[in-house]
Amino acid sequence: MCGIAGAFRFKGEASPINRSALLRISELLKRRGPDGEGFWSSKDDRVALAHRRLAIIDTGPSGAQPMGDKTERWTITFNGEIYNYQELRAELQSLGRVFRTNSDTEVLINAIAEWGEAGLVKLRGMYAFALWDNLKRELWLARDPFGIKPLYVAEAQGTIWFSSQARAMAQCAPVNIDRDAAAIVGFYLWGHVPEPFSWWEGIKSFPAGHVQRLQIGQTSFPPKPFARIQDAYLKRPIIKQQDDTLQQWLRASIRYHLVADVPIGMFLSAGIDSCVIAALAVEQGVKLNTITLAFNEYRGTSYNEAPLAEVMAKTLGTEHATVWINQDDFEGLLDDFFSCMDQPTIDGLNTYLVSHAASKQGIKVALSGLGGDELFGGYPSFRRVGEIATWGRRCSHIPGLQRMLEATSTIFSHSGIQHKAMKLPTYWGSLASAYFLIRALNLEDALDEILDESWVMEGLQKLQTQLALSLSIAGIEESGGTEHAQISALESSWYMRNQLLRDTDWSSMAHGVEVRLPFVDWPLLQQIGPSFNIRTPPSKIDLANCTTKLVEDIRSRNKTGFSTPVKDWIDAGSGVGGNGLKKWAAVVHRNFRTALTTDSAIAPLAVH
Amino acid sequence: MLLTDGFGGFGGISVFNRNFLRALDQSAYVERIYALPRVFVGDAGERIPEAVIYQRKAAVGKIAFLKSLIILALSRRRVDVVICGHLNLFCAAILLAKIKRARLALIIHGLESWTRPSYIPANWLLRAADSIISVSNFSAQRFSSWSKIPVQRIFILHNCVDLDVFLPGPPDLDLARRYRVASEDKVILTVGRLDTTERLKGIDQVIDIIPRLIERYPSLKYLIVGDGSDRPRLERKAETLGLSDRVIFAGQIPDGEKVAHYNLADAYVMPSVGEGFGIVLVEAAACGLSIVGSRADGSREALQDGLLGRLVDPKNQDEIMEALIGVLADKRAHKRLNNINLFSFENFKSRVHRWCEDQVA
After folding, report:
1. Check: CATH 3.40.1360.10 for A2-227?
2. How confident is the model at residue A235 (pLDDT cuts 50, 70, 90)?
3. Which tens digit of pLDDT belongs to each residue from A411-461?
4. pLDDT band at A561 (very low <50, low <70, confident <90, very high)
5. What is the nearest CA distance from A586 to chain B, expressed in angstroms?
6. Do A590 and B54 touch (CB under 8 A)?
7. If A55 and its partner were Cys, which of A59, A491, B135, B236 is the partner (CB 3.0–4.6 Å)?
8. Are B123 and B76 members of one domain?
9. How many CB atoms lie within 10 A of CB A60?
10. pLDDT reading at B151 higher than 50
11. Which chain A residue is nearest to residue B43, measuring alpha carbons?
């Protein structure tokens, strides 16, 4: 788990790689990997790879990167973890491959060397890597199916640049760093910058579940998909689940996610997701350090997760810590929070705070329950999106109704009725648009109040939000898949990928903490995905039933979502109307806007 | 911010407004800026800063401007500071500031602020302004003399140029062909609006001395960039003096060609009497031109009291001629002076940010 960067001069006439720029990018990734740094370039200077290391597997010097294989044909810079590396290693050894180290990195090289692109589907883990094949003179770029690990690419003057963080590249690489209208509009629509766009026009997010092989002199080489989220819900004929299948697959995922040469921690909340993971992990004999974030403002309210989490930790016998955060802590960390933020987002603060606390406790790897809601329908969207689409279908039978309702919504636009409620008829036409209505921070027609019309027009044009949303579930829809499967795929491909995973990555890596997500596991989704494509998919109750150790109060607790009292903390009079999150979006944008003009190296945070 | 023009506009005030909006955009104190322009032609020609909502609708006409102002005033949007970009919008700005209970800031530029304008009937109106920004000390003093607002209360904010864009360079051959300028020709240049009512750039003075200058520099050309109602008269005047092939009227040029026009010239001349600051002088200086400017208005500050160019009495043709002969003989041609850095965007921005801090304090 680390930070990677590199450059590849793929055009014959391209000027030599700007080595000092690459080293500066690597320097900016320091907090992702405080345990070591490495740099490698080919003899002809066509390709250069940089690496910042957070040592977790094979923590000694043999695990250092960029790493070459025994044949010296391959060199890799890799960010992530391959959880099934021991199995793959044994399999590759039986095929005659010889290993020099005990690292998952060398297994990854050999898996590609042996199986080519087919090797990617055998990987269980989270990854983004660049692999240089010196024989074919070819650079591989690849990113895991969910997009847990980030990878940004930019092309400039015949050279491809890439990095784990877009902001580092924007600061140092000679690429187009004009503001992307799609990014700024996307940010105000969603609360984050939607892929494939980045805050900077010349930098794009490398698509999740894709691989790209770049050769010298080639002019077009689009990334190819090797895994698509929506396919996991269809792939196999639906088999009736045996009672313990879910539990077995979950156990397996958790077992793999526990592979490490350092102690493992867990972000424990009072929710079913993290408690089930903690319970199943403890059942496997692992000694867990659990940590819960609590806010003074929430003391005595249902938002306070600390008491229940403490009961759960006691039941499981984990080494538990509750970390209390108050407004002073928040304000003291705010500058650093914004300086670490890779792209503007309204989320990330919770993971940033808990990772900060975890790193102070010496935790380097932490499990998290992220992803459970996307599978088991934990979000209100699972109910509401379906309801909206159903009403849309019903009303479409009444001629003229939609037009009438839309006209009425304009008349009553200042009546104080919730903007989203007024816009129902515009968005109830499909599941994808209903999903947008539920998830949006602002709807399209509210943007004129926030941004200049020139940004809005160009941004909406580039984003094509409705089309992109529909495409991400087209396969399930065409095959007659259930609403639950479609919403689950939407949540995983949009909200989870663009916001939860991305923000978890930068905000935990800022503290040198690797967050592992047993629910966000490709083999797990492939196995249980089809079972979510039936009328009565497994619910949170089924998830809770996977363990007997769950405290009853957690089982029966209403979902509150993990929230922070940030609303109360930011200046209530920041001059921007709207609810707390909209206000926070404006604060984030302001901070990001001004920070970029004075961006300098992100210094390691002093440990208090 | 209420402004005359900015994005998509021409002239010193629009340049100032664009720079001002860009600088505000990068201030940590500024969340969002609603900009209501009086004039907007065509398109912005460049990206509007992220924090700015440029309300083009307001520029359709007086009624549209008032309508936009009233909508903003009655909306739930919070406004902390109303910036009045021109004295002639001051009454509208007072109205908005009062309704929004916001601070009120006024920007003064040049001529409009030197004597009491008819639309400001009484000095007490000006007391509504919590802060006054002037583009030069010269304008501040003139404004102070009638408004009785002490000069010390006025925040001086000199305009700036993009030093990465306005750079010395070789003459553009296409442009030289367009104006029939040969490589051995000496070219002197003035950039400005040719307005019948104003006639403040001193172009008449320069045309008057051209015959005498030709005696010294037989291949002299005078290039005038800009358009306006006074152009036909000036063209006739040049013709009458037999200077049709010497005085070239380029008309209004696209912003993208501005630097090339500076670099076509050997010297810049503007014996003006009505410049609040004179951003064109700084642009010319940034392109490394030798300059003859006025000591009787804000030009003096743009030329840093003579460091960036020669100062002359704009009414004294002999002095103008002498200075022009001097600069044309100067071999230093097209080399930028370090003093120009005082007028960098970075300096401008930090001044604006200091002003923002003052508004919060």
Report:
1. no
2. low
3. 665 555 577 777 887 888 889 999 999 999 999 999 998 999 999 999 999
4. low
5. 7
6. no
7. A59
8. yes
9. 11
10. yes
11. A454
Probe site for chain B from A583, A593, A598, A599 (most B CB atoms < 10 A) = A593
Superfamily of domain A232-377+492-564: HUPs (3.40.50.620)
Instruction: Please enumerate, as own/partner, the contacts of A389-398 that have beta carbons within 8 Å and a separation of 24 or more.
Output: A389/A428, A389/A430, A389/A431, A389/A434, A389/A483, A391/A424, A391/A428, A392/A425, A392/A428, A392/A429, A392/A430, A392/A434, A395/A425, A395/A428, A396/A429
CB contact under 8 A, B47 and A575: no
| Percentage above 70 pLDDT, chain A | 91
pLDDT band at A297 (very low <50, low <70, confident <90, very high): confident
Asked whether A363 and A512 are in contact (CB, 8 A), the reply is no
The verdict on B204 and B71 lying in the same domain is no
Spell out which residues of chain B touch residue A449, defining contact as CB-CB under 8 Å.
53, 77
Domain, as residue range, for B59:
2-160+344-360
Interface contact B76, partner A, CB < 8 A? yes
A contact test, residue of B27, B40, B50 with most A CBs within 10 A: B50
Query: Do the Cβ atoms of B76 and A178 come within 8 Å?
Result: no
Task: Looking at the structure, tell me whether residues B268 and B280 fall in a common domain.
Answer: yes
Note whether B234 and B203 are within 8 A (CB).
Answer: yes
Which phi and psi (to 5°) does residue A160 adopt?
-95, 125
Asked if B31's CB is within 8 angstroms of A593's CB, the reply is no
- Does some domain include residue B165? no
Domain map (residue ranges) of chain A: 2-227, 232-377+492-564, 381-489
Residue A325, classed as helix, strand or coil, is: strand
Residues of A in contact with B78 (CB under 8 A): 573, 575-577
What count of residues does chain B have? Answer: 361
B56 touches chain A (CB under 8 A): yes
Contact A122, A108 (CB under 8 A): no
Q: Are residues B63 and B151 in the same domain?
A: yes
Whether residues B153 and B185 share a domain: the answer is: no
- Percent of chain A at pLDDT exceeding 90: 61
Q: Residue for token digits 């005047």? A: B237
pLDDT(A574) > 60:
no
Dmax over Cα atoms in chain A, in whole Å?
74
CATH number at residue B300: 3.40.50.2000
- When divided into structural domains, chain B yields a total of 2
Q: 3-state secondary structure string, A133-188?
A: ECCCCEEEEEECCCCCCCCEEEEECCEEEEECCHHHHHHHCCCCCCECHHHHHHHH
Residue B9 maps to a domain:
yes
Give the closest-approach CA distance of A232 to chain B in angstroms: 40
Q: Do B77 and A449 touch (CB under 8 A)?
A: yes
Closest chain A residue to B76 measured between Cα atoms?
A577
Residue B288 has pLDDT above 70, yes or no: yes
My answer on whether B186 and B144 are in the same domain is no
Same CATH fold assignment for domains A2-227 and A232-377+492-564:
no
Smallest CA–CA distance, residue B154 to chain A, in Å, is: 26
Query: Average per-residue pLDDT in chain A?
Result: 88
Interface of A to B at Cβ within 8 Å reads 178-179, 184, 448-455, 573-577, 586-587, 589-591, 593-594, 597
Element (H, E) at B99: helix B90-100
pLDDT for A298: 85
**B53 CB within 8 Å of a chain A CB:** yes
How close A74 gets to chain B, by Cα (Å)? Answer: 44
What strands lie across the sheet with A210-215, from one edge to the other? Answer: A67-68, A74-82, A125-133, A138-143, A210-215, A224-225
Q: State the DSSP H helix or E strand holding residue A5, giving kind and residue range, or none if neither.
A: strand A2-9
Same domain for B283 and B139?
no
B321 & B351 share domain: no
